[in-house]
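USER: If only I could read C-alpha coordinates as easily as an amino acid sequence. It would mean a lot if you studied the pair and described how this chain folds. Here is the record:
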Amino acid sequence: MLERTFQLSANQSTVGRELLAGLITFLTMSYILFVQPAVLSTDFNGQPTGLDAGAVLLATCVASALATLIMGLYANYPIALAPGMGQNFFFVSVIMTLAATGISEPWRAALGIVFIAGLAFLLLSLLGVREAIINAMSPSMRNSITVGIGLFIAFIGLKNGNFLVGNPGTLVAMTTQLLNWQCGVFCCGLFVTAVCLVRDIRGSMLWGILAATVLAFAAGEVSTPDRFVGLPEIKTSAIFKFDLATAVSLTCAPFIFVFLYMDMFDTIGTVIGVSEQVGLTQDGKLPRARQALTADAIGTVAGACMGTSTVTSYIESSAGIQQGGRTGLASCTTAALFLLALPMAPMIAAIGSYPPITAPALVLVGSMMARNVTKIDWEDRTEAIPSFLVIIGIPLSFSIADGLALGLICYPILRLFKPGTHRTPWMMYLLAAVLLAYFVFVRANS
Protein backbone atom coordinates (compact mmCIF):
# COMPACT_ATOMS: atom_id res chain seq x y z
CA MET A 1 0.00 0.00 0.00
CA LEU A 2 2.77 2.45 0.91
CA GLU A 3 4.63 1.57 -2.27
CA ARG A 4 1.56 2.21 -4.42
CA THR A 5 0.68 5.47 -2.65
CA PHE A 6 4.12 7.07 -2.48
CA GLN A 7 6.02 5.27 -5.28
CA LEU A 8 8.99 4.56 -3.05
CA SER A 9 10.90 2.43 -5.53
CA ALA A 10 10.49 4.94 -8.35
CA ASN A 11 11.91 7.60 -6.04
CA GLN A 12 14.73 5.30 -4.88
CA SER A 13 13.68 5.40 -1.24
CA THR A 14 12.55 3.07 1.54
CA VAL A 15 9.99 3.22 4.34
CA GLY A 16 12.69 3.50 7.00
CA ARG A 17 14.45 6.31 5.19
CA GLU A 18 11.22 8.28 4.78
CA LEU A 19 10.24 7.84 8.44
CA LEU A 20 13.66 9.08 9.56
CA ALA A 21 13.48 12.03 7.18
CA GLY A 22 10.07 12.99 8.56
CA LEU A 23 11.42 12.82 12.10
CA ILE A 24 14.43 15.00 11.23
CA THR A 25 12.23 17.59 9.55
CA PHE A 26 9.96 17.71 12.58
CA LEU A 27 12.86 18.11 15.01
CA THR A 28 14.37 20.98 13.04
CA MET A 29 11.08 22.89 12.82
CA SER A 30 9.56 21.94 16.17
CA TYR A 31 10.63 25.29 17.60
CA ILE A 32 7.53 26.83 15.98
CA LEU A 33 5.36 24.95 18.48
CA PHE A 34 6.79 27.06 21.26
CA VAL A 35 7.64 30.28 19.45
CA GLN A 36 4.20 30.70 17.85
CA PRO A 37 2.10 30.81 21.06
CA ALA A 38 4.54 33.27 22.64
CA VAL A 39 4.53 35.56 19.59
CA LEU A 40 0.79 35.59 18.90
CA SER A 41 -0.42 35.90 22.48
CA THR A 42 1.55 39.05 23.34
CA ASP A 43 2.15 42.20 21.29
CA PHE A 44 5.45 44.10 20.93
CA ASN A 45 4.66 46.17 24.02
CA GLY A 46 4.11 43.09 26.17
CA GLN A 47 0.33 43.48 26.19
CA PRO A 48 -2.07 40.58 25.50
CA THR A 49 -3.32 40.40 21.91
CA GLY A 50 -6.47 38.52 22.88
CA LEU A 51 -5.27 35.20 21.51
CA ASP A 52 -4.79 32.50 24.14
CA ALA A 53 -1.37 30.80 24.05
CA GLY A 54 -2.87 27.34 24.53
CA ALA A 55 -5.35 27.95 21.72
CA VAL A 56 -2.51 29.04 19.43
CA LEU A 57 -0.55 25.88 20.22
CA LEU A 58 -3.59 23.74 19.38
CA ALA A 59 -4.13 25.65 16.12
CA THR A 60 -0.44 25.38 15.20
CA CYS A 61 -0.33 21.61 15.71
CA VAL A 62 -3.61 20.85 13.92
CA ALA A 63 -3.15 23.24 10.99
CA SER A 64 0.46 22.15 10.46
CA ALA A 65 -0.51 18.48 10.58
CA LEU A 66 -3.39 18.96 8.13
CA ALA A 67 -1.39 20.98 5.59
CA THR A 68 1.63 18.65 5.80
CA LEU A 69 -0.59 15.58 5.43
CA ILE A 70 -2.19 17.05 2.29
CA MET A 71 1.28 17.84 0.93
CA GLY A 72 2.27 14.22 1.48
CA LEU A 73 -0.85 12.48 0.17
CA TYR A 74 -1.91 14.91 -2.58
CA ALA A 75 1.43 16.22 -3.87
CA ASN A 76 3.70 13.35 -2.70
CA TYR A 77 6.44 15.80 -1.71
CA PRO A 78 8.65 15.61 1.43
CA ILE A 79 7.82 19.20 2.37
CA ALA A 80 6.39 20.14 5.77
CA LEU A 81 4.26 23.19 6.54
CA ALA A 82 3.62 25.29 9.63
CA PRO A 83 2.90 28.93 10.55
CA GLY A 84 5.64 31.01 8.95
CA MET A 85 8.23 32.91 10.94
CA GLY A 86 8.17 36.57 9.99
CA GLN A 87 4.55 36.36 8.97
CA ASN A 88 3.60 35.71 12.59
CA PHE A 89 5.30 38.95 13.65
CA PHE A 90 3.53 40.81 10.84
CA PHE A 91 0.27 39.28 12.09
CA VAL A 92 0.90 40.82 15.52
CA SER A 93 1.73 44.19 13.95
CA VAL A 94 -1.62 44.05 12.11
CA ILE A 95 -3.41 43.40 15.40
CA MET A 96 -1.69 46.44 16.94
CA THR A 97 -2.51 48.62 13.91
CA LEU A 98 -6.17 47.62 13.93
CA ALA A 99 -6.37 48.19 17.67
CA ALA A 100 -5.02 51.72 17.17
CA THR A 101 -7.86 52.46 14.73
CA GLY A 102 -10.42 51.58 17.39
CA ILE A 103 -11.45 48.15 16.11
CA SER A 104 -12.65 45.95 18.94
CA GLU A 105 -11.13 42.47 19.17
CA PRO A 106 -8.54 43.16 16.45
CA TRP A 107 -7.17 39.61 16.73
CA ARG A 108 -10.42 38.32 15.24
CA ALA A 109 -10.16 40.78 12.34
CA ALA A 110 -6.54 39.72 11.78
CA LEU A 111 -7.63 36.07 11.57
CA GLY A 112 -10.30 37.14 9.07
CA ILE A 113 -7.62 38.84 6.95
CA VAL A 114 -5.52 35.67 6.92
CA PHE A 115 -8.61 33.61 6.03
CA ILE A 116 -9.43 35.82 3.02
CA ALA A 117 -5.79 35.83 1.92
CA GLY A 118 -5.81 32.03 2.21
CA LEU A 119 -8.83 31.77 -0.06
CA ALA A 120 -7.01 33.98 -2.58
CA PHE A 121 -3.96 31.68 -2.34
CA LEU A 122 -6.20 28.70 -2.97
CA LEU A 123 -7.87 30.29 -6.00
CA LEU A 124 -4.54 31.25 -7.57
CA SER A 125 -3.25 27.72 -6.98
CA LEU A 126 -6.30 26.02 -8.52
CA LEU A 127 -6.12 28.34 -11.54
CA GLY A 128 -2.47 27.41 -12.02
CA VAL A 129 -1.19 30.97 -11.60
CA ARG A 130 1.47 30.07 -9.05
CA GLU A 131 2.46 27.00 -11.07
CA ALA A 132 2.88 29.25 -14.12
CA ILE A 133 5.18 31.50 -12.08
CA ILE A 134 7.41 28.56 -11.17
CA ASN A 135 7.59 27.24 -14.73
CA ALA A 136 8.37 30.72 -16.10
CA MET A 137 11.60 30.92 -14.11
CA SER A 138 14.86 29.97 -15.80
CA PRO A 139 17.02 27.13 -14.40
CA SER A 140 19.57 29.70 -13.18
CA MET A 141 16.93 31.61 -11.24
CA ARG A 142 15.54 28.43 -9.68
CA ASN A 143 19.00 27.29 -8.59
CA SER A 144 19.82 30.73 -7.20
CA ILE A 145 16.80 30.36 -4.93
CA THR A 146 18.21 27.07 -3.63
CA VAL A 147 21.58 28.67 -2.91
CA GLY A 148 20.00 31.74 -1.31
CA ILE A 149 17.84 29.61 0.96
CA GLY A 150 20.90 27.53 1.82
CA LEU A 151 22.77 30.63 2.99
CA PHE A 152 19.65 31.76 4.83
CA ILE A 153 19.34 28.42 6.64
CA ALA A 154 23.04 28.45 7.56
CA PHE A 155 22.76 32.02 8.84
CA ILE A 156 19.77 31.10 11.02
CA GLY A 157 21.68 28.07 12.31
CA LEU A 158 24.75 30.12 13.26
CA LYS A 159 22.50 32.67 14.94
CA ASN A 160 20.52 30.01 16.83
CA GLY A 161 23.78 28.41 17.94
CA ASN A 162 24.84 31.76 19.45
CA PHE A 163 27.83 31.75 17.11
CA LEU A 164 26.73 34.96 15.37
CA VAL A 165 25.38 37.89 17.36
CA GLY A 166 24.18 41.41 16.60
CA ASN A 167 26.80 44.14 16.38
CA PRO A 168 26.04 47.89 16.08
CA GLY A 169 29.05 48.56 13.87
CA THR A 170 28.94 45.58 11.52
CA LEU A 171 25.31 44.41 11.94
CA VAL A 172 26.52 40.88 12.79
CA ALA A 173 29.73 39.48 14.26
CA MET A 174 31.09 36.30 15.78
CA THR A 175 30.37 36.08 19.47
CA THR A 176 33.16 36.72 21.95
CA GLN A 177 31.57 34.20 24.34
CA LEU A 178 32.86 31.11 22.56
CA LEU A 179 33.32 29.19 25.81
CA ASN A 180 29.71 29.36 26.97
CA TRP A 181 27.45 26.30 26.93
CA GLN A 182 25.31 27.51 24.04
CA CYS A 183 28.31 27.50 21.71
CA GLY A 184 29.48 24.24 23.26
CA VAL A 185 26.20 22.47 22.54
CA PHE A 186 26.15 23.90 19.02
CA CYS A 187 29.74 22.86 18.28
CA CYS A 188 29.13 19.37 19.70
CA GLY A 189 26.13 18.84 17.44
CA LEU A 190 27.96 20.32 14.45
CA PHE A 191 31.01 18.09 14.96
CA VAL A 192 29.03 14.87 15.46
CA THR A 193 26.77 15.57 12.48
CA ALA A 194 29.70 16.50 10.21
CA VAL A 195 31.65 13.37 11.14
CA CYS A 196 28.60 11.19 10.52
CA LEU A 197 28.11 12.84 7.12
CA VAL A 198 31.76 12.30 6.21
CA ARG A 199 31.44 8.64 7.21
CA ASP A 200 28.13 8.31 5.29
CA ILE A 201 26.34 7.19 8.45
CA ARG A 202 22.56 7.03 8.09
CA GLY A 203 20.68 9.33 10.41
CA SER A 204 23.60 11.74 10.73
CA MET A 205 21.35 14.71 11.48
CA LEU A 206 19.52 12.76 14.16
CA TRP A 207 22.78 11.61 15.79
CA GLY A 208 23.97 15.20 15.91
CA ILE A 209 20.73 16.36 17.49
CA LEU A 210 20.86 13.55 20.05
CA ALA A 211 24.49 14.36 20.95
CA ALA A 212 23.66 18.03 21.39
CA THR A 213 20.59 17.13 23.49
CA VAL A 214 22.61 14.91 25.84
CA LEU A 215 25.22 17.63 26.37
CA ALA A 216 22.55 20.29 26.93
CA PHE A 217 20.85 18.17 29.62
CA ALA A 218 24.19 17.25 31.22
CA ALA A 219 25.25 20.91 31.37
CA GLY A 220 21.95 21.93 32.91
CA GLU A 221 21.07 24.13 29.93
CA VAL A 222 17.85 22.20 29.46
CA SER A 223 15.85 21.19 32.52
CA THR A 224 14.02 17.90 32.78
CA PRO A 225 10.29 18.73 32.63
CA ASP A 226 8.13 18.07 35.69
CA ARG A 227 5.85 15.93 33.54
CA PHE A 228 6.37 14.32 30.17
CA VAL A 229 2.75 14.16 29.06
CA GLY A 230 0.16 16.91 29.12
CA LEU A 231 -2.23 18.75 26.81
CA PRO A 232 -2.11 22.54 26.43
CA GLU A 233 -4.47 24.51 28.67
CA ILE A 234 -6.94 26.61 26.67
CA LYS A 235 -8.80 29.43 28.39
CA THR A 236 -10.30 31.11 25.30
CA SER A 237 -10.91 29.15 22.11
CA ALA A 238 -9.94 30.71 18.75
CA ILE A 239 -11.61 28.15 16.49
CA PHE A 240 -13.72 29.87 13.80
CA LYS A 241 -13.48 33.15 15.71
CA PHE A 242 -12.35 35.22 12.71
CA ASP A 243 -14.21 38.47 11.96
CA LEU A 244 -14.93 38.56 8.22
CA ALA A 245 -17.11 41.68 8.36
CA THR A 246 -14.18 43.79 9.51
CA ALA A 247 -11.64 41.95 7.36
CA VAL A 248 -13.40 42.88 4.10
CA SER A 249 -13.32 46.61 4.95
CA LEU A 250 -11.16 49.07 3.01
CA THR A 251 -8.93 49.48 6.05
CA CYS A 252 -7.88 45.83 5.90
CA ALA A 253 -7.41 45.55 2.12
CA PRO A 254 -3.67 46.41 2.14
CA PHE A 255 -3.01 43.78 4.81
CA ILE A 256 -4.72 41.11 2.70
CA PHE A 257 -2.44 41.97 -0.21
CA VAL A 258 0.69 41.85 1.94
CA PHE A 259 -0.22 38.44 3.38
CA LEU A 260 -0.92 37.23 -0.17
CA TYR A 261 2.46 38.47 -1.37
CA MET A 262 4.42 37.06 1.57
CA ASP A 263 2.88 33.60 1.43
CA MET A 264 3.01 33.32 -2.36
CA PHE A 265 6.69 34.07 -2.72
CA ASP A 266 7.81 32.38 0.50
CA THR A 267 6.11 29.22 -0.74
CA ILE A 268 7.39 29.47 -4.32
CA GLY A 269 10.92 30.04 -3.06
CA THR A 270 10.79 27.13 -0.62
CA VAL A 271 9.16 24.65 -3.02
CA ILE A 272 11.65 25.46 -5.77
CA GLY A 273 14.58 25.38 -3.39
CA VAL A 274 13.90 21.98 -1.87
CA SER A 275 12.80 20.51 -5.22
CA GLU A 276 16.03 21.52 -6.93
CA GLN A 277 17.94 20.08 -3.98
CA VAL A 278 16.35 16.67 -4.50
CA GLY A 279 16.32 16.85 -8.29
CA LEU A 280 12.54 16.64 -8.62
CA THR A 281 12.36 19.04 -11.57
CA GLN A 282 11.82 17.48 -15.00
CA ASP A 283 12.65 19.33 -18.22
CA GLY A 284 12.91 22.55 -16.24
CA LYS A 285 9.44 22.14 -14.71
CA LEU A 286 8.21 20.99 -11.33
CA PRO A 287 5.81 18.03 -11.46
CA ARG A 288 2.70 18.34 -9.30
CA ALA A 289 3.46 21.98 -8.55
CA ARG A 290 -0.24 22.81 -8.44
CA GLN A 291 -0.87 20.11 -5.84
CA ALA A 292 2.01 21.35 -3.69
CA LEU A 293 0.87 24.96 -3.80
CA THR A 294 -2.74 23.96 -3.16
CA ALA A 295 -1.67 22.14 0.00
CA ASP A 296 -0.01 25.33 1.18
CA ALA A 297 -3.12 27.40 0.48
CA ILE A 298 -5.40 24.96 2.30
CA GLY A 299 -3.04 25.12 5.26
CA THR A 300 -3.42 28.89 5.49
CA VAL A 301 -7.22 28.67 5.34
CA ALA A 302 -7.24 25.93 7.98
CA GLY A 303 -4.84 27.89 10.18
CA ALA A 304 -7.09 30.95 10.14
CA CYS A 305 -10.08 28.77 11.01
CA MET A 306 -8.20 27.21 13.92
CA GLY A 307 -6.68 30.45 15.20
CA THR A 308 -3.12 30.96 13.93
CA SER A 309 -1.26 33.04 11.35
CA THR A 310 -0.31 32.12 7.77
CA VAL A 311 0.75 28.49 7.25
CA THR A 312 3.50 28.06 4.67
CA SER A 313 6.09 25.57 3.41
CA TYR A 314 9.16 25.32 5.62
CA ILE A 315 12.77 25.56 4.48
CA GLU A 316 13.65 23.20 7.36
CA SER A 317 12.21 20.42 5.16
CA SER A 318 15.66 20.45 3.56
CA ALA A 319 17.06 18.74 6.65
CA GLY A 320 14.77 15.75 6.16
CA ILE A 321 15.40 15.73 2.41
CA GLN A 322 19.13 15.67 2.99
CA GLN A 323 18.54 12.70 5.27
CA GLY A 324 16.96 10.78 2.40
CA GLY A 325 13.35 11.92 2.23
CA ARG A 326 12.02 11.78 -1.31
CA THR A 327 8.27 11.18 -1.05
CA GLY A 328 5.13 12.26 0.76
CA LEU A 329 5.63 9.51 3.34
CA ALA A 330 8.17 11.77 5.04
CA SER A 331 5.55 14.54 5.16
CA CYS A 332 2.93 12.17 6.57
CA THR A 333 5.40 11.22 9.30
CA THR A 334 5.98 14.87 10.17
CA ALA A 335 2.21 15.47 10.18
CA ALA A 336 1.69 12.62 12.64
CA LEU A 337 4.40 14.02 14.91
CA PHE A 338 2.68 17.42 14.96
CA LEU A 339 -0.42 15.73 16.37
CA LEU A 340 1.61 13.64 18.80
CA ALA A 341 3.23 16.87 19.96
CA LEU A 342 -0.01 17.98 21.62
CA PRO A 343 0.10 15.44 24.48
CA MET A 344 3.92 15.51 24.49
CA ALA A 345 4.18 19.28 24.82
CA PRO A 346 6.25 19.36 28.07
CA MET A 347 9.08 17.19 26.69
CA ILE A 348 9.18 18.78 23.25
CA ALA A 349 9.29 22.18 24.93
CA ALA A 350 12.43 21.16 26.76
CA ILE A 351 14.25 20.26 23.53
CA GLY A 352 12.66 22.48 20.92
CA SER A 353 12.90 25.63 23.03
CA TYR A 354 16.73 25.40 23.09
CA PRO A 355 17.82 26.44 19.55
CA PRO A 356 21.51 25.35 19.76
CA ILE A 357 20.37 21.73 19.67
CA THR A 358 18.91 21.88 16.16
CA ALA A 359 21.11 24.73 14.84
CA PRO A 360 23.92 22.45 13.52
CA ALA A 361 21.52 20.64 11.17
CA LEU A 362 20.53 23.95 9.62
CA VAL A 363 24.14 25.00 9.03
CA LEU A 364 25.13 21.76 7.34
CA VAL A 365 21.98 21.59 5.23
CA GLY A 366 22.71 25.13 4.10
CA SER A 367 26.19 24.13 3.01
CA MET A 368 24.77 21.28 0.94
CA MET A 369 22.21 23.50 -0.76
CA ALA A 370 24.94 25.99 -1.71
CA ARG A 371 26.44 23.50 -4.18
CA ASN A 372 23.70 24.43 -6.66
CA VAL A 373 25.65 27.61 -7.35
CA THR A 374 27.51 25.63 -10.04
CA LYS A 375 24.24 25.18 -11.97
CA ILE A 376 23.84 28.92 -12.57
CA ASP A 377 24.83 30.25 -16.00
CA TRP A 378 27.45 32.77 -14.86
CA GLU A 379 28.52 33.51 -18.43
CA ASP A 380 25.13 35.02 -19.27
CA ARG A 381 24.94 38.29 -17.35
CA THR A 382 21.15 38.45 -17.72
CA GLU A 383 21.03 35.22 -15.70
CA ALA A 384 24.00 35.82 -13.42
CA ILE A 385 23.13 39.28 -12.06
CA PRO A 386 19.50 38.52 -11.05
CA SER A 387 20.62 35.17 -9.63
CA PHE A 388 23.30 36.87 -7.53
CA LEU A 389 20.75 39.37 -6.21
CA VAL A 390 18.54 36.47 -5.11
CA ILE A 391 21.47 34.67 -3.47
CA ILE A 392 22.54 37.66 -1.37
CA GLY A 393 19.05 39.15 -1.04
CA ILE A 394 17.44 36.23 0.78
CA PRO A 395 19.86 36.00 3.74
CA LEU A 396 20.67 39.73 3.98
CA SER A 397 17.01 40.81 3.96
CA PHE A 398 16.18 37.87 6.23
CA SER A 399 13.28 37.10 3.91
CA ILE A 400 12.86 34.55 1.12
CA ALA A 401 10.11 36.68 -0.42
CA ASP A 402 12.07 39.95 -0.49
CA GLY A 403 15.26 38.34 -1.77
CA LEU A 404 13.38 36.54 -4.51
CA ALA A 405 11.61 39.79 -5.46
CA LEU A 406 14.96 41.52 -6.11
CA GLY A 407 15.89 38.96 -8.74
CA LEU A 408 12.41 38.80 -10.27
CA ILE A 409 12.37 42.58 -10.80
CA CYS A 410 15.87 42.68 -12.24
CA TYR A 411 15.61 39.64 -14.57
CA PRO A 412 13.13 40.84 -17.24
CA ILE A 413 14.56 44.37 -17.23
CA LEU A 414 18.03 43.11 -18.11
CA ARG A 415 16.61 40.77 -20.76
CA LEU A 416 15.23 43.79 -22.60
CA PHE A 417 18.72 45.16 -23.11
CA LYS A 418 20.37 42.03 -24.48
CA PRO A 419 19.69 41.44 -28.19
CA GLY A 420 19.33 37.93 -29.51
CA THR A 421 18.09 36.36 -26.27
CA HIS A 422 15.29 33.85 -26.46
CA ARG A 423 11.81 35.01 -25.63
CA THR A 424 11.25 35.85 -21.97
CA PRO A 425 7.93 34.52 -20.63
CA TRP A 426 5.32 37.28 -20.22
CA MET A 427 4.76 36.10 -16.67
CA MET A 428 8.21 37.41 -15.70
CA TYR A 429 7.34 40.92 -16.92
CA LEU A 430 4.02 40.85 -15.09
CA LEU A 431 5.68 39.72 -11.88
CA ALA A 432 8.32 42.44 -12.13
CA ALA A 433 5.67 45.12 -12.63
CA VAL A 434 3.53 43.91 -9.70
CA LEU A 435 6.50 43.57 -7.35
CA LEU A 436 7.92 46.95 -8.32
CA ALA A 437 4.54 48.57 -7.67
CA TYR A 438 4.36 46.78 -4.32
CA PHE A 439 7.75 48.08 -3.19
CA VAL A 440 7.08 51.64 -4.41
CA PHE A 441 3.49 52.13 -3.25
CA VAL A 442 3.12 49.73 -0.31
CA ARG A 443 6.47 49.05 1.31
CA ALA A 444 7.76 52.61 0.86
CA ASN A 445 4.72 53.99 2.70
CA SER A 446 4.46 51.34 5.40
